[in-house]
Amino acid sequence: MSRVRVHNFSISLDGFGVGESQSLEAPFGHAGERLLRWALPTRTFQRMGFHGREESTVGVDDAFASNWAEDIGVEIMGRNKFAPSRGPWENEEWRGWWGDDPPFHTPVMVLTHYPRLPLEMEGGTTFYFVNADPPEALRRARQLAEGKDVRIGGGTTTVREFPQADLIDQMHIVVVPILLGRGERLWEVLEGLEDRFTIESVVSGSGVIHLTFTRRVGA
Amino acid sequence: MSRVRVHNFSISLDGFGVGESQSLEAPFGHAGERLLRWALPTRTFQRMGFHGREESTVGVDDAFASNWAEDIGVEIMGRNKFAPSRGPWENEEWRGWWGDDPPFHTPVMVLTHYPRLPLEMEGGTTFYFVNADPPEALRRARQLAEGKDVRIGGGTTTVREFPQADLIDQMHIVVVPILLGRGERLWEVLEGLEDRFTIESVVSGSGVIHLTFTRRVGA
């Protein structure tokens, strides 16, 4: 069976995956880019198009970051990762934050209460808009993945809902040593998750803590 | 000026310093002893009286644990660390969790809305019962400390109130990779703490993450 994976999902020390007051100008709300700063210099993120640096790093941060795409056949993301708007689609001109050639290069399932027609981009990315709970979303994502793994891409609510529904095989969570104070918490209603996962952690030179959750055999 | 310090304060990955349903039998509520398991085998805790093991460790965990007493002249603790009871003291027979010779060996200020007479124990520990907010408690603790440092000993509310009041110089917080789901959170209302502190972290062989907060010069 294909695995369900989370990669490079960053939270603050107080557990927020996103700040308050998200908008078109501030996709992470008052958190700004602070939750992603560890990732931007990595070779993986530089190759994804986060330019502006001459050098890229291949240290501990990149060792984790670089695993995000291998064997992935589909991404599931929440509406809020795809678009800053809420409610019914006022127009369908919005094509995501990532330009004409998004870095996914696979089908991407956007969970939304407001379905619309699929949106085919350059480079192999097609956005599908689906109204489904996690088990049903996963069933349909696996049809798109052609036997490959499923990445749960965010945002915070979406990443939280899959372990809540016990539908996760592995997670890579990055704890950034800042205190956001407000926003959306990742770790709600996940008591006892450690009973089903082996948890490892390591601190990288950039100061973040990489946590990996690997589902135990039989758990 | 003497420093105000936190040592060995353990929280879960989701930020709880104590679980729900504290009682005489379960001082950490449903967390049990899981938040302290990293510390019990250390030479420092073994010498404090947490017996039952033949060997003790002097690795990373003990390197941090062992700093708790040096240059400390007084501890401030919340009522809930001293006693399982709430409200007015029904009798004054309760003498703390630590037996006749508590491991503090200094004055200990217990914050409570219900003052009572000081309680002198063996080995240099005297409990003082004081109704005061953090600035006033600190002022009075410094009088007892005779120029030495002040340790904020817990529980969760007490440890949180001192950085909230901007009255902390250094903190050692230990993140234990378990998810408690409920209890009392340490990281409430501490947005932006990283602006005033240098934060370092390291993972120990026991799997916990040691975080140190050192106040920046001038901050």
UniProtKB/TrEMBL annotation, chains A, B:
Pfam families, per database record: RibD_C
SUPFAM superfamilies assigned: Dihydrofolate reductase-like
InterPro entries per record: DHFR-like_dom_sf, RibDG_C
Domain Bacterial bifunctional deaminase-reductase C-terminal: 8-188
Protein name per Swiss-Prot or TrEMBL: Dihydrofolate reductase family protein
Organism per entry: Kocuria carniphila
Lineage, highest ranks first: Bacteria, Bacillati, Actinomycetota, Actinomycetes, Micrococcales
